[in-house]
Design brief:
about 200 residues, mainly alpha, Leucine-rich Repeat Variant, 13 helices, about 65% helix
Length: about 200
């Protein structure tokens, strides 16, 4: 039985021993292993359980990061990652946001948790929230309120990724449409380019 198979074991002691070894391996090795690409069972399910309930914040963060690297859109991961969004450890929140974005539309239920971080004091967390929302593609009226706020953010990355998310909306609010027009004159080239893309997507340019 190889290392990843032992990690997936139902025997708690076997899994725990394998976990300590796995954390010392490059993520690329784990990502390319055939067992990690089996949707939902057993590897991703085990990672989701660790991200959800493991007492060590480091293990939870590592699990979230690995879920993101593997990128399998399995709904079993979403509740655990959503739970991490409410923690105070910034690097863990970043890993969870990254993972939810790579999961894509399957992570729709995590949108409220993402929105709770859209005004986080850490600009990296803020821009990653809008990056993930664009990947998930569920841009409802509540998301649009936060996008509108983000377009006045001091970070050009936040403004740019918030604009990227607009392209996934089925219908934009009148206020947001007006702000997109204004963003064509943003002082930074990234938001300007994203505003132009949204205009083209909407057929307004």
């Amino acid at each position: 039985m190889d290392l990843l198979q032992r990690f997936c074991s139902d025997e708690e002691s076997t899994c725990a021993a394998a976990l300590s070894e796995l954390q010392g391996l490059p993520i690329g090795y784990i990502e390319e292993h055939p067992i990690s690409q089996t949707k939902g069972r057993p590897f991703v399910k085990k990672l989701a359980a660790l991200a959800d309930k493991h007492p060590s914040p480091e293990v939870r963060e590592w699990s979230a990061q690995l879920i993101g690297e593997i990128g399998i859109p399995d709904p079993v991961c979403v509740p655990a990652l959503n739970g991490i969004l409410s923690t105070r450890k910034g690097s863990a929140v970043v890993s969870a946001i990254w993972a939810l974005g790579t999961i894509g539309p399957t992570a729709k239920d995590a949108v409220p948790g993402l929105l709770l971080n859209s005004r986080n004091g850490n600009p990296e967390i803020r821009w990653r929230v809008f990056w993930a929302l664009e990947k998930i593609g569920f841009i409802n009226e509540h998301v649009q309120v936060e996008i509108l706020h983000a377009l006045s953010d001091s970070s050009s990355l936040v403004r740019g990724y918030a604009l990227s998310a607009c392209a996934k909306a089925e219908l934009l609010s009148k206020a947001l449409t007006g702000r997109i027009n204004e963003m064509l004159s943003d002082p930074d080239p990234f938001p300007r380019a994203e505003a132009a893309k949204v205009k083209r997507k909407l057929g307004d340019a």
